[in-house]
């Protein structure tokens, strides 16, 4: 097997390069699974409440579509159901990014050419990336099994549940390995692999929601669901998963053996020979560079908002049965109509997710500078302020667009369901968009650090977001003092549509954002580039 | 104003490293100026100071009559820059990048752009991510040559170009000079500098060690003379400036300083010359003379 020579060395290289990334993605996914499972178990204390919840959920097409059916009315069964979709998708995402990062992205940057010229076999890079991905998924599974079992859950069910997640991650890794062989760019490879995972999940969703349950056998998510943790613990679906992984990996190797280094199988498309008349300024370039990411976020968030619009009433009914959830909603979402509390809570949570977009878009500045593409723009008659301002403007406008998409999706669909679009749409749109200033505070932290200490911009901005998120859990489940919440700009924003509108916190946020951005831009003007 | 670029005593440090250590550089308007030095000598650092990307710790720098740091934006209307390692946006085509850069600099000559695309054999429809290194260089070169600017700042612009494209590049620079534009050309390729440049600055460890026209620099260095004489061999060892004398019957071979060349020729002519070959020093020889110290020092270190 000379084509695999050097795999061991490459495995060590990946582990060394990703010594932070691997534990961050896979470790946090496992901790998320353990933490949410623990918190959900206490939500339905009585057998009757759990049975009631099972019957409403299994009779609700929206819930069946999003996650699938509950198999067992025990606390463990409901907990396993709750995390099933999220954790499987999280590990899938982590796995596919890992694979593309160490295969196609390496080829694209030309680094694998350098490595390939040493004593490294043709398939070694792919093999090393797959080995690390499989090991990381199994590692996460071990961690989750221990974490579930430590909560007093049966060890067999804990292992089955954890392995069902790892299996999903391994399928995504194998899918990404194939996608990385097909396309010539890492972006396209990530897109193709993510679309593949999405289609698999959608097939399961359609199968569970409708009459066509046989469809579930076409999706690996359908198979892992059939492992039924805490409800019979089936292991045989793992054989199907192993078969699919073997098939995908074999296909990836077959293509890898036939193609040139750096080339794909799917042809690279040609683009326009001349630029559109609009593309004539730093701002136009920034818009063009941000467009793809923004459209993807806007579409995903709008679609998610629409799905929530369809399920809002059903979920609100469930909440009425759960004292713990009612308390949580009252605390974050305020009083009023239960469905409004639900929307306020969801918008509150999603605003933290949208913050990831805002930080990502802001940090595009740093990526442009590091790649020296910024030099190309700045060697033209473009001042640093104009260049950075263009990116920051698009990032801020993009944040508002994504939030508007969320409000639009919720308001339109919920309005159609209740027959009162005219009332629901503006309310939910406003509830979503009012979140923009708080999100921009975190993006402005990233912008300020980018100007002053660029190296710390990404870790610090994400750390602040993580802190706000953890604070939430600490206050809701851990008994931390509620007065701590004032630190979080998310908590300070009026929780529309259930709470009263208040303009003062928003004005404060605007002042803070302006101050941070001014500081960042002043730093950027003074420092060396690159 | 005759100096497009005038730099004196420029100092720039990065932590412990002194990248520029009192560098001087003068580029006259309308000339093609070669900027030579080994890797790490400070060529790119100087250029990045001139582009306002780095702020010098001390020293003077003037570019097109302005301050490269404070007036960067205005000055950049009048110059085009080609880095040695061009990175492009993966989802923009080469043609889009050329148009964008040209428009930002205040307009692009479409006829000239089409001509350049043709000469460099560049397909403008490909996405930035799919170009080879050489083709990425071509995108930046076409954008620079097609824009209407006074100064071209080229930082090892031909890395990755094949010899045919290297020839096209040299034609383009010659065209630019005919149009009266000023070119600062940092390069490793000595034949390229020798073919294109009016004047040359050689730098080493952040300082300028030599600057002038190639002719001036040659006068300061030794010419190799090989002659076959008809008459008796004169005592050439007494001629001032003659070194490394080898006499073999009627044939003589020696090196002579620029100043001693006239005296040597008189002595040879008096003895009767049958054939004579005089080789001026190549740029490579001049270059190596300056770096000979470094090479020797390295060899000593290696020997230890």
Question: What is the beta-strand fraction of chain A?
Answer: under 5%
Residue fraction in strands of chain B:
25-35%
Estimated structural class of chain B: alpha/beta
Q: Tell me which protein chains meet in the greatest interface and how many residues each side has.
A: A-B, 39 and 44 residues
| Largest beta sheet: strand ordering of chain B | 5-6-7-3-8-9
Transmembrane segments (chain A): 22-44, 83-103, 124-149, 155-176, 188-207, 235-255, 293-312, 342-363, 392-416, 428-453, 460-481, 501-524
Keywords (chain A): Membrane, Transmembrane, Transmembrane helix
Protein name (chain A): Anibiotic ABC transporter efflux pump
Membrane topology (chain B): Peripheral membrane protein
List the topology elements.
The complex is a heterodimer of chains A (530) and B (304).
Chain A: H1 7-17, H2 21-41, H3 47-58, H4 61-66, H5 75-102, H6 104-109, H7 111-116, H8 124-150, H9 155-182, H10 186-209, H11 220-225, H12 237-258, H13 282-321, H14 323-333, H15 338-362, H16 364-370, H17 373-378, H18 384-418, H19 421-433, H20 436-452, H21 457-476, H22 489-492, H23 504-526
Chain B: E1 3-14, E2 17-28, E3 32-36, H1 43-50, E4 58-63, H2 72-76, E5 79-82, H3 94-104, H4 110-119, H5 133-146, E6 151-155, H6 163-178, E7 182-187, H7 190-196, E8 199-204, E9 207-213, H8 214-220, E10 223-229, E11 242-248, E12 251-256, H9 261-271, E13 273-279, H10 283-303
Parallel strand pairs in B: 3-7, 3-8, 5-6, 6-7
Antiparallel strand pairs in B: 1-2, 1-4, 8-9, 10-12, 10-13, 11-12
Helix pairs in contact in B: 3-5, 4-5
Keywords:
heterodimer; A: 530 residues; mainly alpha; 75% helix; B: 304 residues; six-stranded mixed sheet; four-stranded antiparallel sheet; 30% strand; transport (chain B); ABC_transporter_ATP-binding (chain B); ABC_transporter-like_CS (chain B)
